[in-house]
Amino acid sequence: MSRDHVQSAERPTGDPEAPPYGAEAPYLELLARGVSADAYEQPVLLARAQGRPAEWIAALEHAKLLALRVRSELEGRRRREAELSALFETAHDLAGLRDLDAVLQAIVQRARSLLGTDVAYLSLNDPDRGDTYMRVTEGSVAARFQQLRLGMGEGLGGLVAQTARPYVTDDYFKDARFQHTDTIDAGVRDEGLVAILGVPLMLGHHVIGVLFAADRRARVFEREQIALLGSFAALAAAAIDTANLLTETRSALAGLERANEIIRDRSAVIERASDVHDRLAELVLRGGGVHDVAAAVSEVLDGTVEFTDATAAPAQALEAFRTEGHAVRHEDDWIAAVAAGGELFGALVLRGHPGLDPVDQRTLERAAMVTSLLLLARRSAAEAEQRVRGELLDDLLDARDRDPRLLRERASRLHADLDATHVVLAARLDGPAADADHEADARRRLWSAASHLAATRHGLAAARDGGTVLLLPLDTGDTATDVARRTARQLGTAVHEAVTVGASAPVEDLTARPDAVAAAYEEGRRCLDALRLLGRSGDGAAAEDFGFLGLLLAGDRDIAGFVDRTIGQVVAYDERRGTDLLRTLDAYFACGMSPARTKDELHVHVNTVAQRLERVGRLLGDDWQTPSRALEIQLALRLHRLAAAPIRH
Question: Which PANTHER family has this protein been placed in (predicted)?
């Protein structure tokens, strides 16, 4: 379809009431102002009130949907940034812990703000009295609720404490999973609470309290919100643990007041702990990495700290850490697992320090916790970027978004240049799948590897049709074949399985011709299917690699390119020298490749035929008369003759 036809399909012409290209302008203004979602209906309502044509209304409706999608994505990103920022701020408070109540109050305030609940509160177990009590509340208005003391095992908090697992109820008074008491129900009723989420505060495998978020109306808490509250609970438990440790340390120092050397040693240990906490907080705030954390802890603990994958660390030590919640000694090393939400990322290993002070042990554990937060933050950011890249490529493939300016802006934010020449590649795994789960896992690994490759090459990638599609820029001096083979090799190395890749011919003007991306993808898929049929699994190729079969695979049927690649040098030689090599080749093949019959057909001496064929061999290569080459040359001769023939009316 020509560019004019594309434009005419996008908006009617000749109608003074037709919607302009700027139909999305009011929504860009609404996005810039950050107004509520309700305001996005106003431009459509105003256009209808003014009696605008249906095309105008449709354009505004389409722009509204896109704007709301962008607004939702922006709000999601702001929410994730706020969550990570709050976690990092809380970690910073913990690193510089001076007032336990202030830290716990900050944790409850941030949990309530980020989850958007009416009330948030934290209860702690009292081992001396055998019950639990409210320690911190935020948003509470009922005095009886704020002063509640509950027997162990009562209410939703008792269920959380018994099972050491998060629990949520959409309607507290209708939920029979936990034990109701008059005291608890009266306090909850005074506060007007309906939906309640509780997560345990854990020290090792012991529950020391519960962190709650609650609403005065029915509400369903999402999995991400439960995980976020769990992260705050972990920080609260760490704050309590740190406060207890500091209290124990102060008691020990008071009891050993006459032992000056012990006091000095203990003070030095505490100073190192405070120093490493400050350093870890600084690393978090300035975006440091896992190895930066290991280096900082190495310096403070006077040893060598390394981050290792879960597969490289002793499994028994990791299991002991996850059970006890403390760093574990393994031979002459100390090991602290780096984990979050039941997922194991790896471990911090302290080497060459068999005798570890309890405070230094806590320092190693805090470093492991900070490392897990950094890994979670980086993974979340990477997954968000991968999704955005996939969405843009999906839009290009499906030709839903035809605004070139918007396409360029979206690509620019991903450091991709849609004005450059690109190649569309279809990639698929060729290894046998043991079962459906194994196949799904293999596809996810392929998509992840392709997304990483696309990000490093300033391209795009998306999962599609049981495989992956990539849009990669074509570097100077590269061909589509080079890109396909290199991509097959890189993806196969990343996923440890054979990956077959089919490439399209180079594609230009992606924003001006959105349909070209979809057509190029189909061409790449045909090349992929051809490779698999030919038994070339794990290889990469483009249509140009298949000779005349490439004409059948190519989406645009590049006949001129095929002719030029096959006999272009002979054509150029005839044009420069005024020779008759093309006519000689035609006659040679028509006469069954017999020089004797060819000289009769051309009315020349047989030596002349031999000289011309020798010249052809020098131009096309010594193998030009092999069956496969001869077939391609004959096809190219016929296509060249048809292209040069005049059109008769």
Answer: CARBOHYDRATE DIACID REGULATOR, DNA-BINDING TRANSCRIPTIONAL ACTIVATOR ADER
Q: Which domain holds residue 110?
A: 97-249
Residue 374 shares a structural domain with residue 433? no
**197 and 113 co-located in one domain:** yes
The answer as to whether 357 is a domain residue is yes
Nearest by Cα to 110 from 134, 144, 136, 132: 136
Instruction: Report the C-alpha gap between 468 and 415 in whole angstroms.
Output: 20
Domain end call among 553, 569, 591: 553
Closest CA to 349 of 277, 281, 298, 279: 298
How is the beta sheet containing 119-126 ordered, strand by strand?
149-151, 131-138, 119-126, 206-215, 195-203, 167-169
Q: What is the CATH number of the domain that holds 295?
A: 3.30.450
Calculate the dihedral angle through the C-alpha atoms of 234, 237, 238, 240, rounding to the nearest 10 degrees. 160
Mean pLDDT by 10 residues, the chain (649 residues): 38 46 72 77 83 84 81 68 63 65 84 88 89 90 89 84 89 90 91 93 88 92 86 83 78 68 59 65 63 72 72 68 70 73 69 70 74 63 53 68 68 73 87 70 82 83 84 86 90 86 84 75 80 77 66 52 80 88 87 86 87 88 84 77 48
What's the CA gap between 240 and 75, in Å, rounded?
Answer: 33
The C-alpha atoms of residue 520 and residue 503 are separated, in whole angstroms, by 8
**241 is a domain residue:** yes
Neighbours of 411 (CB within 10 A): 23
465 φ/ψ angles, rounded to the nearest 5 degrees: 55, 40
Contact 40, 68 (CB under 8 A): yes
The whole model's pTM is what? 0.36
Among candidate residues 532, 582, 576, the one with its CA nearest the CA of residue 553: 532
Pair (372, 475) in one structural domain: no
- Residue reference for tokens 């976690």: 87
